[in-house]
């Protein structure tokens, strides 16, 4: 006797419907999980944008000041002033580089 002969037609329909219901439930769970993952990724993306904005706000003024010091180093006639501005600019860029490395190593 084969598998098909063991069950009557209503039993086959019930088994088929159970399989269909299970497939629909599996698809529903998968879609729901996908939506939850997408929402979580969106939250993470928003946090990263806020962090990036804060980093930009904190580094931009220092970067501009360092550029101004570098510009002053090239435009001053007095060598002592040029040297002072150059040291100030290099020091500022080194500090910014160190801060960025620290942020990078901390995973931000």
Would you kindly provide a written description of the structure presented here, covering whatever features stand out?
The structure is a single chain. The protein has 108 residues and is an all-alpha fold. The protein has one domain. Helices cover 91% and strands 0% of the residues. It contains three helices and no strands. The protein has helices at residues 3-6, 9-75, 79-105. Helix 2 runs antiparallel to helix 3.
Query: Which range does the strand content fall in?
Result: under 5%
Structural class, by secondary structure, is: mainly alpha
Total of domains: 1
| Major pleated sheet | none
Taken in chain order, the helices and strands follow as HHH
Q: Please bin the fraction of helical residues.
A: over 70%
Termini separation comes to: 66 Å
- Taken from the alpha-carbon principal axes, the silhouette is rod-shaped
What attributes characterize this protein structure?
mainly alpha; 108 residues
List the SSEs and their pairings.
Blueprint: H1 3-6, H2 9-75, H3 79-105
In short:
By secondary structure, the protein is an all-alpha fold.
């Amino acid at each position: 006797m084969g598998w098909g002969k063991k069950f009557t037609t209503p039993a086959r329909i019930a088994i088929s419907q159970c399989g269909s219901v299970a497939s629909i439930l599996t698809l529903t769970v998968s879609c729901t999980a996908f939506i939850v993952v997408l929402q979580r990724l969106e939250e993470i993306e928003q946090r990263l944008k806020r962090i990036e904005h804060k980093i930009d706000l904190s580094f931009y003024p220092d970067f501009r000041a360092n550029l101004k010091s570098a510009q002053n180093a090239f435009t001053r006639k007095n060598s002592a002033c040029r040297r002072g501005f150059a040291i100030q600019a290099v020091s500022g860029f080194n500090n910014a580089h160190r801060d960025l490395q620290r942020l990078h190593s901390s995973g931000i």
